[in-house]
Amino acid sequence: MPIAQEPTLTFNSGAAAGPSVTAVGTWQVHALAQGEAMKAISAKLKSLKGKSDLAWDLSEVDSMDHIGAQLFWNAWGKKRPKSLTLSPRLEEFFRRLEQVGPLAMQPQRKQRLNSVMMLGFGVMTFFEHLQGFITLLGQVTLDGVRFLRKPMRGPWREISANIFHAGFQALGITALVGFLIGVVLSYLSAQQLRAFGGDVFLVNLLGMSVIRELGPLLAAILVAGRSGSAITAQLGVMRVTEELDAMLVMGISHGFRLVLPKVVALAISMPLLVIWTDTMALIGGMASALVELNLSPQYFLLKLPDAVPLANYMIGLLKGAVFGVLIALLSCHFGLRIKPNTESLGRGTTTSVVTAITVVILADAVFAIVFSGVGFR
Amino acid sequence: MIDTTTSDCGCPEGDGVLTLDGSVPVVEITNLWTMFGRTVIHQNLNLKIEQGEIMSIVGGSGSGKTTLLRQMLGLEQPSRGCVRIFGEDISQVDSDALQQLRNHWGMLFQQGALYSALTVFENIAQPMCELKKLPPELIRDAVLLKMNMVGLGPEHANKMPSDLSGGMVKRVALARALALEPQLLFLDEPTAGLDPDRSESFVALIKSLHRELGLTVVMVTHDLDTLFALSTRIAVLAEKHVVALGTTQELLKVEHPFVKEFFLGDRGRRALEALGIPNDSKEQT
Which of chain B's residues have a Cβ under 8 Å away from the Cβ of A75? Predict the structure, then answer.
């Protein structure tokens, strides 16, 4: 689509007054960016670089902008050539360039870190986060005490909204994932158990692993992905839009109105989600057992209380509550540290989810050690 | 109920090529309707902006000024009617021509809309880098020149947008809007959030750039000082269309109640006095 005349340079070595260069066409950024124009001009200018006493004729140029002018200016070594023919219209561009003079950018200070310094930085950041997290934990504890003292003035509305978002709205996805994991686990275990003739132990295997371990962990990972990221992003955007500052100015504490409701809501809804996920996984397992081993659901349900002592169920619920609190605290911690720019928002959300899932699994390992003697017979 | 069945706005077919020589109006809005649900914002709105003008669009809150600006930029579609920029209907033009069109206009958003992850330098260089044709040294020099034009020294080049003051954000955003030497510049509340001193120097800056680059400027503003100081023509949006259009002098004579209130209220009077524009309509009732 020709909206401009192609800018071209012609080198004329045989002119009477010595070698000269003639420029024609539209020397505007849009014309320069069209097709291969820029490449041709760059090559031409490169070949002219060494020659200093050229006569430049720009009188044929039909229009120009600052970028075109800059191109000439750079080719001239940032000064006016001795011989220059210019129409008065273009004069202004070069006058400005002359006026402005050389503009140099300060070189960006690059941080050169060797591996030892990187390690140091990493450790320092870790402790910084740890300190921040402990501060937040202390703040939440104090806010919790304040809440218990005057429960009527607590953030009930926020708590209920958070239970709805983090708990109720997660029912679908936890049910689906729980059911499928139950099916898969039961199917694979049944294959192995049949080889040893231990079909009936499927209930023990499935019940123990789902109720004690997989149910809480699955629910926690899903909630960390769903609600953890949402909490971090929400707080981050509130930082970007200065809502957090507005709350402080009005004397509304972040801890009491933002962090505490989320912690309480997840502490309440996570155990409930664990029950729900357990149920769904066991239903999946029962279905698979019925198909694969012809194990009736009645038998399965009758056998379950014998196979899995109640303590396991309690441990599962406790795990759920602890995981919920951890997820809420970590996502709030990262959310409140987000700086008001898009990159920090993205990075903060990623870090928050990754850390929350890692910490949940670590906590799970701690539970396994602490309760190693409980719930088995 | 408003009849919205006819769709032909009766304007000439474009030829798919931008007309940049000023032979057609730079912006031409014909019989434009905007409806959000059943709320009518614009009703049969017509507006022509010629090359080299500084056209200001004013109107009360909710009169659809910003919506109109967004429709000119193709960010929103009008319900009916058409918006032509450089003679091309922007809702019909093919993607190549649209890209070309976008390289020929610049927009200064109210909050600057700088890319917060990029430095000042990278923000201004972005449109030039996007062309993928210009050599890096040329881009560097051109960016520094643009920064110089808007009154920013090279020492600010490596700063992040979050480290800038409000006035500087506007300047960087203006430099970015001007990066590709557009013929058409859109300004949304250019002086909102600037102190009077800054806003005056910003007005002077836009004025000098307008003179130097021969820009056509379309501006939405609430600030009467800016309005009177900059605009060559003013369009007043009220009652869902343009109720008055003309120079400041002409608008002072318009008998429409909104226009009278807007320009000859206390605020308007003060701004006019400050600028020394003779106000020959009746003083003080």
Answer: none
What A197-202 contacts at long range (C-beta under 8 Å, 24+ apart), as own/partner pairs, is A199/A293, A199/A295, A200/A295, A200/A303, A202/A285, A202/A289, A202/A293, A202/A295
Record the pTM: 0.74
Whether the CB-CB separation of A133 and A351 falls below 8 Å is answered with no
| Residues sharing a CB contact under 8 Å with residue B158, sequence separation 6 or more, in sequence order | A105, A106, A108, B119, B120, B121
Domain membership of residue A121 (yes or no) is yes
The pLDDT > 70 percentage for chain A reads: 97
Comparing CB atoms, the residue among A29, A42, A342 nearest residue B117 is A342
Is the ipTM beyond the 0.85 threshold?
no
Chain A residues near residue B115 by CB distance under 8 angstroms: 342
B chain contacts of residue A103, beta-carbon cutoff 8 Å: 141, 144-145, 147-148, 154
Cα-Cα-Cα-Cα dihedral of A338, A344, A347, A353, to 10°? 20
Q: Is residue A28 part of a domain?
A: yes
In a domain, residue A2? The reply is no
In angstroms, the CA A350 to CA B267 distance is: 50
Q: A15 pLDDT exceeds 70?
A: no
